[in-house]
């Protein structure tokens, strides 16, 4: 949309603009999770969304590389809490067996954003170039429009979304009790404002933390490449600059429906890792075709690119394990921080797998992404084995204890970690 020319970007400036967002995200991830434990969850989330929208609008005022990296860094800071906060909302409101599909319901809207963004980008770029409706560039109009909509959404969120079932304005007292009671089987409670040092330490000693973080960091490398260079990849297929904006829309549709489908299947058949691996395999096929097909095969290349859009469904299933399988509020917020720091690192690496001299097909970056997703699929299988082995060991221990085991009254709401609570079982 002309941002490179209008802001006089040179060399690898565009790569760093893609990366610096994640430096801000990385810098603020743990403080953001700590504040989410101490402050009202919905209020701090709504505030961050509103400020994020304002910073997005400020992008339109930037005229050089320095301005862009400054607002991108700030954008990362205020996004750092959003996905982790939504995962906490999942554990506050829904049973473990409902969380994969519920997680897919909000993460899938990244796909809708891609559709709306692609259509609006095309319309604005075409309108500015052909009709000259405004002195602003199309990219500036896009930042102003999406930033304004974000501020409106954040304002609604601030006033409408409760911090937990205990404070839900749309439930009466009896319904609030029912909403909390239905979560008893989660063995997680609904949050605690007290920071517990032993839970913080446990987050770093629990193997599942590293399985999830490793998957996220490796699978985020292709995401960092595709997110920042989507239009350039599509232009590499022989599309014009404007058409490359519009042709990105079907990827969003694939992501939306795939995330919902695999999220529903994961809860319906109680098998998150298996369906995540299937989603990853489908995306791998897309990357194999993207590397192998010649540039002359436009339809095949586009189909390959769209198939890659299934991958976020695997990410949905994996991150839902944080809300379902990590108990203890300090531990959960700490694992949240670790995992999304890993997400930042992967996305930081992603843009730097691209050398603009490798265009138009960027075979090296696509090959690196292909290998990354192969490794990610193997990690999913290993994590499933870890969960099944842990559950089997707990079942065996409970059988050995027999009648000597005594359930403590309301221990489900005592803010015990998944390791501390012998009745806790992992969902996989």
Automatic annotation (TrEMBL):
Membrane topology summary: Multi-pass membrane protein
Annotated keywords: Membrane, Transmembrane, Transmembrane helix, Transport
SUPFAM superfamilies: MFS general substrate transporter
InterPro entries listed in its UniProt record: MFS, MFS_dom, MFS_trans_sf
Major localization listed first in the record, in broad terms: membrane
Transmembrane segments: 14-32, 44-61, 73-94, 106-125, 137-161, 209-226, 246-266, 273-292, 304-322, 334-350, 370-387
GO cellular component: membrane
GO molecular function per UniProt: transmembrane transporter activity
Domain Major facilitator superfamily (MFS) profile: 1-389
Protein localization: Membrane
Protein name: MFS general substrate transporter
UniProt source species: Tuber magnatum (white Piedmont truffle)
């Amino acid at each position: 949309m002309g941002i490179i020319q209008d802001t006089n970007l040179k060399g690898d400036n565009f790569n760093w603009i893609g990366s610096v967002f994640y430096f801000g995200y990385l810098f603020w991830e743990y403080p953001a999770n700590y504040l989410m434990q101490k402050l009202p969850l919905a209020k701090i989330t709504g505030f961050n969304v509103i400020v994020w929208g304002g910073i997005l609008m400020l992008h339109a005022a930037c005229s050089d590389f320095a301005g862009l990296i400054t607002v991108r860094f700030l954008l990362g800071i205020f996004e750092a809490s959003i996905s982790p906060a939504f995962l906490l909302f999942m554990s506050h409101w829904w049973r473990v067996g409902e969380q994969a599909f519920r997680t897919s319901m909000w993460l899938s809207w990244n796909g809708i954003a891609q559709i709306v963004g692609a259509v609006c980008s095309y319309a604005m770029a075409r309108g500015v170039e052909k009709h000259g409706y405004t002195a602003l560039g199309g990219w500036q109009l896009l930042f102003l429009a999406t930033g304004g909509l974000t501020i409106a959404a954040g304002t609604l969120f601030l006033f409408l979304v409760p911090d937990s079932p205990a404070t839900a304005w749309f439930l009466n007292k009896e319904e609030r009790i029912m909403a909390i009671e239905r979560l008893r089987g989660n063995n997680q409670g609904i949050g605690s404002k007290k920071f517990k040092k032993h839970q913080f330490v446990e987050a770093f000693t629990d193997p599942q933390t590293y399985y999830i973080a490793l998957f996220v960091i490796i699978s985020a490398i292709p995401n960092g490449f595709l997110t920042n260079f989507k239009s350039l990849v599509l232009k590499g297929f022989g599309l014009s600059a404007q058409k490359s904006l519009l042709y990105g829309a079907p990827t969003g549709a694939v992501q939306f429906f795939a995330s919902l489908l695999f999220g529903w299947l994961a809860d319906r058949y109680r098998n998150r890792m298996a369906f995540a691996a299937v989603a990853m395999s489908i995306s791998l096929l897309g990357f194999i075709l993207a590397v192998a097909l010649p540039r002359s095969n436009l339809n095949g290349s586009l189909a390959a690119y769209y198939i890659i859009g299934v991958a976020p469904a695997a990410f949905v299933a994996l991150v839902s394990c944080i809300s379902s399988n990590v108990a203890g509020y300090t531990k959960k917020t700490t694992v949240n921080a670790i995992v999304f720091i890993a997400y930042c690192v992967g996305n930081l690496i992603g843009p730097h797998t691209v050398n603009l001299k490798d265009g138009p097909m960027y075979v090296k970056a696509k090959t690196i992404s292909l290998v990354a997703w192969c490794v990610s699929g193997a990690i999913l299988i290993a994590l499933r084995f870890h969960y099944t082995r842990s559950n089997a060991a707990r079942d065996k221990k409970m059988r050995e204890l027999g009648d000597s085991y005594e359930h403590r009254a309301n221990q489900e709401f005592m803010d015990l970690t998944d390791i501390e609570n012998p009745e806790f079982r992992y969902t996989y």
